[in-house]
Automatic annotation (TrEMBL):
InterPro entries, alphabetized: BphY/WalK/GraS-like, HAMP_dom, HATPase_C_sf, HATPase_dom, His_kinase_dom, HisK_dim/P_dom, HisK_dim/P_sf, PAS
HAMP domain: residues covered: 166-218
Organism of provenance: Clostridium saccharobutylicum DSM 13864
Record GO biological process: osmosensory signaling via phosphorelay pathway
Keywords assigned: ATP-binding, Coiled coil, Kinase, Membrane, Nucleotide-binding, Phosphoprotein, Transferase, Transmembrane, Transmembrane helix, Two-component regulatory system
The protein, known as: histidine kinase
Gene3D superfamilies: 1.10.287.130, 6.10.340.10, Histidine kinase-like ATPase, C-terminal domain, PAS domain
Length: 556
């Protein structure tokens, strides 16, 4: 608006100046013409002027003055002034150059006048004068139209500025609302500014920035998710704390180990650790790893490690990892127990062999010697069996990749029975085999042979002599399993021993003196596991026992 008003002011004033100058020029020209006309009059000039019709310039009458060489007024058509005109600038100029011109305020008639003097041939000077009618802006007759024009111009400029403002403000508003939405997490939003000006390029730069921001934020989120899913799937507990011991991050495994059931991010870790060993380890500066046993919430063996979290050069906290080593510890314990058991089991027959062999030196009697030699032979045999079983067990436990093949389990049981036939016959035990299975199973055939051998051997071993009967059932069920049931009518197993018979070196009653190693069923259990199967036992003391094995067969 200010610009528009300023322009109007400048334009109007220059226009008025131009008009006025034109007016002055025209008036001067007209006065000159009048003088030229009078210069033609010749003698009796005063009378001729007097008789001249009234000439008007701009509707104003002309004042004509005739002046002689000395500045004396000879004639004036308006006033009879006697004042000498010699010093008037236009007269001076006319005397010197033939023509003179001046504008001056006339005190006599109180207006500004233009004077034009011309020297005549007889050296008189004729001077014509007329009031100058200049235009001023705030003249009464102009002011109305001037205000109207001003009003129209102001209206027009308001209309134009509104349009301009709208063109600028609307894209800015659009950018502002998009920025607000982005700040609130909507990274997909884009500004719809499509003009070809600076705002348009600002809009496209903004969209470009939003695009980059979106990519960067998605990258950060993806990284964060990856770290989180790695932490969540770890089977070790990880806790990160800042320098004030406030939790920055904790994974589910750490929550489980420490028995924390709520979100403790931002809270002090020590408030949630009840175990003294853990909290003193975290507080301790020098110790970096430690093995401890906790009792709550579950009894566990833990290996805790602590390391500093460095960002650039600054230490921003520490990371504590909890590794559950309960299983490892148990295996370690089992291993040492196994070694102790093996040594003990081996020691018994060896002591016996050593003792009888030493005594043998002093025995002269043939019959006693034979008896002793028999005992030594039996013990050696037992030692061999024991070592064989230990080797089989360790072979299965070490999970060496065996030859996996598809085979018909009935054929393997047939092979076992062929071997066992003689032993059964010697004890007068009846072997009965019913095989209705036609499904193949997948696994190590030799191991399945060992499984059948151990169960059937036990059934024969723990059967009553003469009246014994061992029944072997081999069939498959529609739920995808092959079943092998071995039933005997032997001595049975006491109820309290049933859960333990699959343990290594466990024998129900050491006084049963059947020469067993206590490893047979442990081996069976391991083999069943390698076939992804299951084994259970049903037994009635003095009535008999049934071992039931089920193994998934291959769908044909
Ligand atoms: P062992 O070499 O002593 O037979 P096993 O591991 O094969 O060792 O068996 C463990 C124990 O389970 C045996 O000591 C035995 O007392 C008992 N047992 C196994 N099979 C039978 C069965 N068919 N009838 C009765 N007792 C059995």
């Amino acid at each position: 608006m200010i610009t528009v008003l300023f322009v109007i002011l400048i334009l109007t004033s220059s226009f008025i100046i131009e008009i006025n100058m034109q007016q002055i020029k025209n008036t001067k020209e007209e006065l000159r013409n009048v003088n030229n006309l009078i210069s033609q009059f010749g003698d009796n000039i005063e009378t001729k002027i007097d008789e001249m019709p009234n000439i008007k310039i701009n509707d104003m009458g002309i004042r004509l003055t005739l002046i002689d060489n000395d500045g004396n007024v000879l004639y004036d058509n308006e006033e009879k002034s006697t004042e000498n005109h010699k010093d008037r600038s236009e007269i001076k100029e006319a005397m010197e150059n033939g023509e003179g011109y001046a504008t001056r305020y006339s005190d006599t008639i109180k207006v500004k006048l233009m004077y034009y003097a011309t020297r005549l041939d007889n050296n008189l000077i004729i001077r014509s004068a007329v009031p100058i009618k200049t235009i001023t802006v705030l003249q009464k007759e102009n002011i109305k139209s001037y205000l109207l024009i001003l009003f129209i111009v102001v209206l027009f400029s308001i209309f134009l500025s509104l349009r301009l403002v709208r063109r600028i403000i609307e894209p800015v508003k659009e950018l502002e609302s998009v920025t607000f939405k982005m700040a609130n997490g909507d990274y997909k939003i884009r500004a719809n500014v499509k003009t070809n000006d600076e705002l348009g390029s600002l809009g496209s730069s903004f969209n470009n920035m939003a695009e980059q921001l979106q990519i960067k934020i998605y990258e950060v989120i993806e990284k964060q998710n990856k770290i989180e899913s790695i932490l969540n799937s770890m089977d070790s507990g990880v806790v990160a704390v800042d320098n004030n011991n406030n939790v920055i991050s904790i994974n589910p495994c750490a929550e489980l180990i420490l028995g924390i059931k709520k979100n403790i991010i931002g809270q002090c870790l020590s408030d949630y650790i009840t175990d003294y060993d853990i909290s003193s380890f975290i507080a301790e500066e020098d110790e970096n790893d430690k093995e401890i046993k906790i009792l709550h919430p579950i009894e566990r063996d833990l290996k805790i490690k602590k390391s500093e979290m460095i960002n650039g050069r600054e230490n921003i906290g520490k990371v504590i990892t909890f590794q559950d080593i309960t299983d490892m510890k148990r295996v370690e314990l089992m291993r040492s127990q196994f070694v102790a058991n093996v040594s003990h089991e081996l020691k018994t027959p060896l002591t016996s062999i050593k003792g009888f062999a030493e005594t043998l030196r002093f025995v002269n009697d043939n019959e006693t010697r034979e008896k002793f030699l028999d005992i030594i032979d039996k013990e050696a045999e037992r030692l061999t069996r024991l070592i064989n079983d230990i080797l089989i067990l360790s072979n299965i436990e070490s999970n060496l990749v065996a030859d996996v093949e598809e085979f018909l389990p009935g054929d393997v049981i047939d092979d076992v029975l062929n071997i066992m036939k003689k032993t059964a016959a010697s004890k007068d035990i009846m072997l009965e085999f019913e095989d209705s299975n036609s499904e193949l199973i997948l696994g190590d055939r030799d191991k399945f042979y060992q499984l059948g051998l151990n169960i059937i051997e036990n059934a024969i071993k723990y059967s009553k002599d003469n009246k014994g009967k061992v029944k072997i059932l081999s069939y498959s069920s529609s739920d995808g399993y092959y079943h092998l049931n071995v039933t005997d009518n032997g001595i049975g197993i006491p109820k309290e021993d049933v859960p333990r018979i699959f343990e290594r070196f466990y024998r129900v009653d050491k006084s049963r003196k059947k020469g067993g190693t206590g490893l047979g069923l442990a081996i069976v259990k391991h083999i069943v596991k390698t076939f992804n199967g299951d084994i259970c036992v049903e037994s009635e003391l003095r009535e008999g026992t049934t071992f039931k094995v089920k193994i998934p067969y291959i769908y044909s």
